[in-house]
TrEMBL record, chain B:
GO terms for cellular component: plasma membrane. Coiled coil: none annotated. This is Iron ABC transporter permease. Gene3D superfamilies: ABC transporter involved in vitamin B12 uptake, BtuC. One of its GO terms (biological process) is siderophore-iron import into cell. It is a multi-pass membrane protein. The keyword NADP does not apply. Signal peptide: none annotated. It comes from Nonomuraea turkmeniaca.
TrEMBL record, chain C:
This is Iron ABC transporter permease. Pfam families: FecCD. It is a multi-pass membrane protein. The lineage of its organism: Bacteria, Bacillati, Actinomycetota, Actinomycetes, Streptosporangiales. The chain crosses the membrane at residues 71-88, 100-121, 127-146, 158-179, 199-225, 246-273, 285-306, 318-337. Belongs to the binding-protein-dependent transport system permease family. FecCD subfamily. GO terms for cellular component: plasma membrane. GO terms for biological process: siderophore-iron import into cell. InterPro entries: ABC_BtuC-like (IPR037294), ABC_transptr_permease_BtuC (IPR000522). GO terms for molecular function: transmembrane transporter activity. Keywords: Cell membrane, Membrane, Transmembrane, Transmembrane helix, Transport.
């Protein structure tokens, strides 16, 4: 299938590497989709999460993106030519429901990116979140294979900074998509954002209507139960900003401040009115299952009352996903009884 | 009459001995040279295959910088050469270290990956990643320190009027278990991203090395391989030698300790560069001995076998399998059957304990 | 003459010694029911124990449904690990033998990972059977490999086969979990070994195996004494060395397999306690086995109680506590213990 004619690819490669980006579509790979073909000619520039301004003579069209970032771009109609993920694209929360046909998968394991395959795609832009603490883009952090880091030599790398808000992240990728020529205001693409804005409005309303409602984000495990620290969970910070009373645990694990760990004997330490259950392991039957398995899970009154809703933990990148998750949350807030907990 | 009858066979024996030695020398020379050629061929071959194929000529021209072609250079010098060089260097180091351990401890099963050195390096590296949040060269440095510390610990613990092979191995196995337990604990204390980095390191892959680590290992090889060969030669002379040599028992011990230290440093550097890669050190020596026939024990042939094994394993791991696997998994698959065979036959040689 | 007198005197002291251990174990078990990461007053504990029924309060639930099963499991698992270690050390004449060295942990881990990634199962209750099967499969494999060749499963071959199988299985495990972040997360917590979160279902699941195994193990004292003299001597005394060895391995597989299945790999108990027992009893396995059986749960429960009270409201897994406390003991045994006399 991919019987590259070496000469052809090499010529193409040398063109890219020489730095003159004549996007000669020689037909060996599926080109970027319609949205990109409408890309403005350039010059193009974008301010990376690191603060650096990345410039190019021509607007990039052949993009390689990390998992969630690819999902974000695709939601604006920009189809990357290649994707690298930290786990199987069939299980990745952002990618599992997307149609990835025609997109080259360059890696499904953290630290390993097939840079040769990536080079053959002749990318002119690499997109990955910027992690301020690690000062690196997704997939290019310290500790990955030395080879994988060479990805950054194929094309400039840009990304939005991961930090304190999913809204900022989604907005950042909207800006990036727009700069790449996406018609972000076209009705079908803007629909997601509209849906999101509506979801936020109803969410705020629902929360305001239940002013006494407290919630805690929790993740039960076999030998203890974890309570999330909103400080390190951008979506929880967003919820707090919109008026939801998300409990800040008072003694997060000093070595791992993402959570406070509670032994099952102390599972009842917090008594919220609604439990945000770690979405990565949430199934509709989870609450009942844990009640059966852990005698003290139902000592949390909200759990006993079934006031449990999935919490999209640490993965959101797009308005669409966020809107869907918010709507679920709003419904749970409306159904919740603010007098269950303490 | 009497004297002549006794002298004649002596002369004959001496002549035969010299002839045997000549045969051995020439066989070992032939084997070593053919191994070197095979390793070079594999080295070039690993750089030819990939997402797109290159010819041997293109590869060689690019490596030797005979021709300027940016795209070929990017693929060969940028992507494939570091991995291939790392496989070559790590293989050489492990092969040499393995055979030294096996000879000094007089046991075909005494290879550095089984006696706690790999695990010690692993524990130090993981501690660095998880607790100290270090990465890159610092992880390698810690792995190096961990391996050396583990080897010293083992030597001290196993020392009782000399280092006996079995005690050393048993204690090494115990230490391996202990270190592995602590590694498991470290992993639970890690943030998921750190745990991921730690596991990535632990899987062992020749692609991890960065340029400076690689230069260090190559430099060490240039220095340590000849040292090891010289020490071994000296040791043999001392052990085979006459009463005067035997009287110099201390010198024998010193040579043994020096040789062991060389092997430890080689192992430690290899682990630091590529993570724990198992079985190469175990199988390289015996395979080389098989090829060498009567002239067993050569360090250079064993090192070359190690390099050939690792280059092949990497070739299989990265290119021939449907999904890319860590090199360590493939060397494991190659090493396991050999180990079975070794365990099955080792008793007949009276070395199985 | 005097030595046999000594032995007789020793034996007459060992019987009452065992009774003392029994009392100690009861005491530690009582501690384990009354102390924990949740502070519950002694009267309340006693009331709950007296009623044998929860009155719905969390304190009585914690006492009866968390601590009592945990304590019982601790006693059974501790006894199983200690006895399995003692038998293995006797059979292999390797002072450092323990179930972990024989590949049990890595076998169980591979099966757990397989269960999580391929079959999608979750939770300690379900892992048990996969871990059990994996542990037994690994042990059988190790024994089969070591039995190759003329001499059969000699100590050194067992040790090496164990290390080799462990290394091989571990590389498979890491290979799988690298592409699946969730599994990596589950595995790393399973790997430490914990008594927490395992309740009645786990207990009733593994208890029959553990109890049968423990009773069967007591019959091995004489045979192990024979083996300790060396194989030739044992043969000379009319023992079926190969058959004894295989039977002993069968018992170890059941004991250590069930223990590891229930709690994950718990280190050092099986390694260290038999040496303590040997130090007290001398070389007679008819005493070493019951002493290991009572000493090990005492050590395990004490470590567990310690882990519960040091980081309230969190807990330390018992595997971690044992790792920290066991390391010096281990070094002591290796350096100063009478290695050659096992």
């Amino acid at each position: 299938m991919r019987a590259w004619r070496p000469a052809l690819v090499l010529t193409a490669l040398s063109v890219v590497l020489a730095g003159c980006g004549s996007a000669d579509t020689s037909g060996t790979t599926t080109a970027a989709s319609g949205a990109a073909s409408a890309a403005p000619a350039g010059p193009w520039s974008f301010t990376d999460g690191s603060g650096k301004v990345v410039k190019a003579d021509k607007t990039p069209t052949r993009i390689i993106a990390h998992a969630g970032e690819a999902a974000a771009l695709m939601s604006f109609g920009i189809k990357p030519v290649g994707i690298y993920a930290d786990e199987s694209v069939k299980t990745d929360a952002n990618l599992k429901d997307l149609d990835l046909t025609g997109i080259e998968i360059l890696g499904q394991e953290w630290g390993k990116i097939d840079v040769e395959k990536a080079a053959a795609l002749r990318p002119d832009l690499i997109v990955g979140d910027w992690w301020p603490a690690e000062k690196a883009h997704s997939g290019l952090e310290e500790g990955v294979d030395e080879k994988s880091k060479k990805l950054a030599e194929l094309a400039p790398v840009v990304g939005v900074s991961q930090g304190k808000s999913i809204v900022d992240l989604a907005k950042g990728y909207e800006d990036l998509a727009k700069s790449l020529g996406a018609a972000v205001d076209s009705p079908e693409i803007a629909a997601n954002k509209k849906r999101f804005e509506a979801a936020v409005a109803t969410f705020k309303e629902a929360v305001a209507a239940k002013s006494g409602l407290t919630v805690a984000a929790m993740s039960p495990a076999d030998d203890k139960v974890y309570v999330a620290n909103p400080e390190y969970a951008p979506e929880l910070l967003d919820f707090q900003r919109w008026g939801m009373k998300v409990i800040n645990p008072d003694t997060p694990d000093p070595g791992f401040p993402y959570w406070e760990n509670l032994s099952w004997e102390n599972a009842d330490k917090y008594q919220p009115d609604l439990i945000l259950f770690d979405g990565r392991s949430f199934k509709p039957t989870s609450n009942a299952d844990w009640g059966k398995k852990q005698p003290t899970w139902f000592k949390i009154k909200a759990a006993k009352a079934g006031a449990v809703v999935s919490w999209p933990a640490y993965w959101l990148h797009t308005y669409g996903h966020f809107a869907t998750e918010l709507d679920k949350l709003t419904a749970a807030v409306k159904a919740a009884d603010p007098n269950i907990g303490d | 009459m009497k004297t002549t009858t006794t002298v004649a066979p002596q002369v004959a024996t001496a002549g035969a001995f010299r002839a045997t030695r000549r045969r051995r020398t020439s066989r070992s020379l032939v084997v070593t040279c053919s191994l070197a050629v095979a390793v070079c061929a594999l080295f070039v071959l690993t750089m030819m295959v990939g997402s797109f194929q290159l010819s041997a000529g293109e590869v060689i021209a690019s490596v030797l910088q005979l021709r300027e072609d940016p795209s070929v250079d990017f693929v060969v010098r940028g992507l494939r050469l570091p991995t291939a060089a790392s496989a070559l260097a790590v293989g050489l180091a492990l092969g040499a270290a393995g055979t030294i351990f096996q000879q000094l401890l007089r046991n075909p099963l005494a290879s550095p990956d089984f006696v706690g050195i790999n695990s010690g390096a692993g524990l130090a590296a993981i501690t660095g990643i998880v607790l100290l949040q270090v990465s890159g060269v610092a992880v390698s440095a810690l792995a190096l320190a961990g391996a050396v510390a583990a080897a010293l610990l083992m030597y001290v613990l196993a020392w009782r009027d000399g280092v006996a092979g079995y005690r050393f191995i048993l204690i090494g196995i115990g230490a391996t278990l202990f270190f592995d337990g602590l590694i498991g604990y470290m992993l639970t204390r890690a943030q998921l991203s750190d745990a991921r980095q730690a596991m990535h390191w632990l899987t062992g892959s020749v692609g991890q090395a960065d340029a400076s680590e690689l230069r260090l290992l190559l430099g060490a090889l240039l220095l340590l391989l000849p040292t090891a060969v010289l020490l071994q030669r000296q040791l043999r002379a001392l052990e085979l030698g006459d009463d005067t040599a035997r009287a110099l028992g201390i010198r024998t011990e010193l040579s043994r300790a020096g040789l062991l230290a060389t092997a430890v440093v080689l192992t430690a550097l290899a682990v630091a560069v590529a993570g724990p890669i198992v079985f190469v050190a175990l199988v390289a020596g015996p395979i080389a001995n098989r090829l060498l026939g009567p002239a067993t024990g050569g360090i250079i042939p064993a090192a070359l076998v190690g390099a050939a094994l690792l280059l092949t394993a990497d070739l299989i791991a990265v290119h021939l399998l449907p999904t890319a696997l860590p090199t360590g998994v493939v060397t494991g698959a190659v090493g396991a059957p050999y180990l079975l065979w070794l365990l099955a036959t080792t008793n007949r040689q009276g070395a199985g304990g | 003459m005097s030595s046999s007198n000594n032995l007789a005197r020793r034996a007459s002291a060992l019987g009452p010694g065992l009774a003392v251990l029994c009392v100690l174990l009861a005491l530690v078990a009582f501690l384990s029911v009354t102390l924990g990461s949740r502070s519950i007053g002694l009267p309340e504990v006693l009331r709950a124990l007296g009623n044998l029924d929860t009155d719905g309060s969390i304190n009585s639930t914690v006492t009866l449904e968390l601590r009592v099963p945990r304590t019982l499991l601790g006693i059974l698992v501790g006894a199983a690990l200690g006895v399995a270690g003692a038998i293995l050390q006797g059979v292999t004449r390797n002072p450092l033998a323990d179930a972990g060295i024989m590949g049990i942990n890595s076998g169980a881990a591979v099966f757990v990972v397989f269960a999580v990634t391929v079959l999608g199962v979750r939770g300690a209750g379900v892992y048990v059977w996969f871990a059990f099967a994996g542990a037994i499969a690994a042990l059988v494999l190790v024994y089969a490999i070591a039995s190759l060749g003329r001499e059969g499963a000699t100590p050194i071959k067992l040790a090496l086969a164990g290390v080799a199988v462990t290394a091989g299985l571990a590389s498979v495990t890491t290979g799988i979990v690298m592409t699946n972040v969730e599994t990596l997360n589950e595995l790393r917590f399973w790997q430490v070994g914990s008594l927490a979160g395992r309740y009645a279902p786990v207990l009733t699941g593994v208890a029959p195996f553990l109890i049968v195994g423990l009773i069967a193990s007591l019959g091995f004292g004489r045979a192990l004494n024979g083996l300790a003299l060396g194989e030739d001597m044992a043969r000379g005394l009319g023992q079926q060395v190969t058959r004894t060895r295989a039977a002993a391995f069968g018992v170890v597989a059941v004991l250590a397999g069930a223990a590891t299945a229930a709690c994950g790999p718990i280190v050092f108990v099986g390694l260290v306690v038999p040496h303590v027992a040997r130090f007290i009893c001398g070389p007679d396995y008819r005493w070493i086995l019951p002493y290991s059986m009572f000493l090990s749960p005492i050590v395990l429960l004490l470590a567990d109680v310690l882990g519960r009270v040091v980081v309230v409201p969190d807990e330390l897994q018992v595997g971690v506590v044992l790792g920290v406390l066991g390391a010096p003991a281990f070094v002591g045994i290796v350096r100063y213990g009478r290695l050659s006399e096992v």
